[in-house]
Amino acid sequence: MNGNIHSIETLGTVDGPGIRYVVFTQGCLLRCQFCHNADTWEIGSGKQMTVSEIMDDLMSYLPFIQSSGGGITVSGGEPLLQVPFLTELFKECKKKGIHTTIDSSGGCFAHSKLFIEQLEELLQYTDLILLDLKHINRKKHIQLTGMANNHILEFANFLSDRNVPIWVRHVLVPTVSDDPEDFQKLGEFIGTLKNVQKVEILPYHKLGVYKWEALGLEYPLQHVEPPTEEKVQFAYDLITAHWEKQ
Predict the structure, then answer these.
(1) Model-level pTM greater than 0.85?
(2) Does residue 185 contact residue 160 with C-beta atoms inside 8 Å?
(3) What confidence score (pLDDT) does residue 207 get?
């Protein structure tokens, strides 16, 4: 079983609990204006890697990873574009007692029978999902990512119904995703989910701008600066206050 892989980070510390072996898959349907991995967008490209190649590499880091309470995280791009590959990879990980995490926006979630069947099998071997909720407002979500968020919110409910543990992640972009009313509505939506273990506010940054330039793309948020720590804390407090009310 081959996967289309963009890159691998061997000792990640911000992609789930503990130290993580992070696999970045190639391909994504969203076109987020703040994306710092725009070079992962193209579907079907990247390096072809087998499950055994990844496992062989992962095993050499396993003592450091497991001693920290870590594991493997598959990010992207959008990992759920390659569900059969993820399933085979996670099956092998669970044989070794490795904690498994998916970092997903849910942007390719669909109700087709085949996709649901494959996804439900994958979830049997998945310990945690980092769910990236880009924007709660449908119109603003389209402006920000190029897609509506209906199916993404349905994905969140799908995971809640099956009690799959999730950490909700929200990128705070000044002037784009920092409206207090949207924070309130996001918190209220999170409060309807039964499986949320944690909420994280990720401050917008410009570390991936050079990738846009290398791809010959115009970066749309050129004049937006990262938020202050105070604004990040304000967003967290407002979202979690409405989450905990539900």
Answers:
(1) yes
(2) no
(3) 85
Q: How far apart are CA 59 and CA 201, in angstroms?
A: 32
| Cα 166 from Cα 227, distance rounded (Å) | 25
Do the bridges between strand 47-50 and strand 71-75 make them parallel or antiparallel, or are there none, so unpaired?
Answer: unpaired
219-224 average pLDDT score:
93
Query: In whole angstroms, what is the distance from residue 6 CA to residue 11 CA?
Result: 16
Q: Which letter, b or e, does each residue of 1-26 get, where b requires 16 or more Cβ atoms within 10 Å of its Cβ?
A: eebbbbeeeeebeebbbbbbbbbbbb
Contact 167, 128 (CB under 8 A): yes
The sign one gets for the Cα dihedral 56, 58, 61, 67 is: negative
CA dist., res. 223 & res. 228, Å (int): 15
